[in-house]
Amino acid sequence: MASETGTESAGRSSTVRRRLLAERLSSAGLALAALFAIGLFALVVAILVWESAPILAEQPLSELLLSSNWNPAQGEFGFLPAIVGTLYVTGISMAIGIPLALLSAIYLAEYADGRTQTLLASFIDVLAAVPGVVFGLIGLIVVVPFVGDYLAPALGVQSTGLGILTASLVLSIIVVPYMVSLTVESLEALPDELRESALALGMTKWGMIRGVLLRAAGPGILSAILLGFGRAFGATMAVVMVIGGMTALPDSVFEPGQTLSTLIVNDFGELMSVPTTQSALIFVGLMLLVIVWTFNLGAMLLRRRLERRWQY
Amino acid sequence: MDRYTEQKLFGVLMRASVAVVIGALAIIVGVTLVRGGAVLASDPTLAITPPGPTYLIDGGGGFLHAMVGSLFIVVPATVASTAVALSTAIYLQSDYSSERFAEWVNLFLNVLWGTPPIVYGVFVLTLLIFAGARASLVAGIVSIAIFQYPIITRYADEALRSVSTELKETTYALGSTRFETARITLRAAFPGIVAGVIMGFARGIGDAATVLFTAGGATDMPTGPFEPATTLPILIFEQATSFNAEVRSHAYAAAFVLMVVVLVLILVSKLLAGRFARFVPGSDTQ
């Protein structure tokens, strides 16, 4: 009898010990996993900085950024054409994408209801999940002939259809879904009292949206736009398929060009054997990372401001 | 312009924008399915035939190697990345970490989420050069896993957050350790997590920029973990710009397969997220 209780309590304490051991081990493992996010980021930055150091040691940063001579075989690495191309493509695609996204988002959040809203939101989700290469393929089948055969001749320009404008048109659709869902989110987070009191003062519905809602959701919408910018900067596959891939300063938007990310794709494969080229292209990766990181951080700070503002 | 005209004008503009966005989606899905479907219907063996030796030039054979390569790369990548992502997500819950620490990690996760896939490709390639290794199936798995990690973590974090606090409090009141509570919470958040993993899988199988340099773009069937492989998106990228119409048509067929896979995955993920909600303990929908 006595011995039986003894083994039973011993058994119980060993169970507890086992449970506590599992608890301690799992805690350590989970903490490691959480630090993985920070570690991965640090590792990416460290490796890219380390590997792009040779090119920075060889040529001053200003020359890299401001020279338009791109001739890796001769050791000339001017990123200006790619930078200008990136600005063009990002600028045009955002100029088309922002109004499209904002107006669609307002419609989704304030006008559509019930089934329509669910259906439209699902369509936007599907659009966000379409692979980049499929966008590129459709760009080749649909947008390239449209620009080359109709748009360019209509404006009196010669164009093959492959070029900066085509890439921008494709990209403008790619960035829309991200901006729409984030904008809808921040509009829907606004309290209904805001809408009711504005309407009670005799505003039209659109007046209420423009004067009150857009302002109240301002930081959220701005952060959505910044994240869209980040996407546009980094978009690679679809752009590389339709931009034409020529590293020279473009004269017009109908000319083929190059963006920072397409430069990596177009030049990496062939020139792996030249260490300086490798370093130069890794430096391009680092630039992309820094720019996107800045946009993300800005978006985050704006969102935080919005959260503080919710406390009316 | 008085305010009623303005309201009408913007009403029209809004409907037009929605029409443009939905129209673009319809064109993308429609053209891919119709063009690709026609090619695949005329020669269904494309999808189950290994490629010929010069398939990028004369279009001989099919694209079985890319389909197998996609599976061999994305399935292990999703498994590995889910394991780490789940652990991260659990640790971000208030049981383990402070709100402040979670906020910091979330900041880095957001930055990782926004990082262009091509940067991950360059990163893993640089690691490969360091290690003196060459592009291979394993390197492809690693890059896709890194790409999926922030995506799956965010979905899992959201799913875990949506579990009712009463459930956690009950388990703690019964004397559970944090780990045991985490297991119960995981079970409650299961449908949401599975939906997130499927979304991560869909994103992984569709991305080419991450694996372009790391998987190696093989031109035949994958032969081993340290041999080069290729995936459907890489194949589409390589074939789409070909001058040979037949090679291009194979890109359409591959895009059809990829698009169908992605659409089905999204549908399943949506159904899961909605449907299983009522089986979750502690949810209010019973």
From TrEMBL, chain A:
Localization, UniProt: Cell membrane
Residue span(s) of domain ABC transmembrane type-1: 83-299
Bilayer disposition of the protein: Multi-pass membrane protein
Keyword Transmembrane: yes
Keyword list, A-Z: Cell membrane, Membrane, Phosphate transport, Transmembrane, Transmembrane helix, Transport
Biological processes per GO annotation: phosphate ion transport
Coiled-coil annotated spans: none
Bilayer-crossing regions: 27-50, 79-108, 120-148, 160-180, 212-243, 280-302
Top-level lineage group: Archaea
GO cellular component, one term: plasma membrane
NCBIfam families: phosphate_pstC
Biological function: Part of the binding-protein-dependent transport system for phosphate; probably responsible for the translocation of the substrate across the membrane.
Record family assignment: Belongs to the binding-protein-dependent transport system permease family. CysTW subfamily.
UniProt name for this protein: Phosphate transport system permease protein
Automatic annotation (TrEMBL), chain B:
Keyword Ubl conjugation belongs to the record: no
Compartments it resides in: Cell membrane; Membrane
Gene3D superfamilies cross-referenced by the UniProt entry: MetI-like
UniProt xrefs under Pfam families: BPD_transp_1
Membrane topology: Multi-pass membrane protein
Main location (coarse class): membrane
Keyword set, alphabetical order: Membrane, Transmembrane, Transmembrane helix, Transport
A cellular component annotation (GO) from this entry: plasma membrane
The keyword Transferase appears for this protein: no
Residue span(s) of domain ABC transmembrane type-1: 67-269
Transmembrane segments annotated in the record for this chain: 12-34, 63-92, 104-129, 135-152, 184-202, 251-273
Family: Belongs to the binding-protein-dependent transport system permease family.
Name of the molecule in the record: PstA family ABC transporter permease
Taxonomic source organism: Halalkalicoccus tibetensis
